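Re: the 206-residue chain
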Amino acid sequence: MKLSLEPVRARLRAPFAAAWGTISEREILVVRLEADDGTVGWGEAAPLPGYGCAMADQIWAVMERYRGALARAGDGSRAQILAACAEASNLPEALAAVDLALWDLEGRRTGQPVWQMLVAEGAWDITRNISGQYPNVPQQPPGVPVNATVAAEDPAAVAHQVTATRGEGFRCVKIKVALGDDAARLAAARSAGGEDMAIRIDANGA
C-alpha cells in the first residue's frame, strides 16, 4: 500500500478567536493511500493549535515512519494495518488519519458509503434498535444535530453570525466566552437567535 502526503493551508472565512488565542488559517495534512489493486482512499489530519494535540510537522514525521508498515501490510484488514502502524508510532492524530483513509478506501472498493459500513458494523449507535441489532440498514444517513460555533468578539458581529446561522437551519449555537464582554455577546446572540435558539458556551478552560 502506497502512502502520499500533501500539506494544505485552509484560510478561514473569518478569524477564529478563543480564550487561548486567535487563528486565521488551518494547517491540514491530506493523506492518500493507494492499495495494490489501484483503489485510493483519502484521509486527513487537522491539528488545532491550543488544544494540546500534535502539530502538523510531528504528524508528518510519524506518517513517514508508517511508509514501511503500510508497504508491508499490503491488503490486510483495517485492524491489521492500523496495528502495524501503531507499532511504528502510536500517535493518535496520525493513526486517525490513516484510519479515515482506510475507511474511505474500503468504501470505494465495495461501492458503499462509509456511514453505511459503520452502521452495518454496529459502530453507529444512532440507528440501533432496542434489541441492539440492525435489521434494516437505512438507505439514507441518519441525521446528526450539530451546532454552529460563533467566535466573534464584537456583540454586533455575534448577532450577525447568529442570524446567518439561523437562516442556514441551525437551531443551536456555541458561543466562545472569556473574550471580553461576554454578557453583551450572549445577549446579542439571544436577541438574534430568538427564544427557541439553544445556546452553549465554551470557555476553552479559561
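Helices lie at 56-73, 78-88, 92-110, 114-120, 155-167, 182-193.
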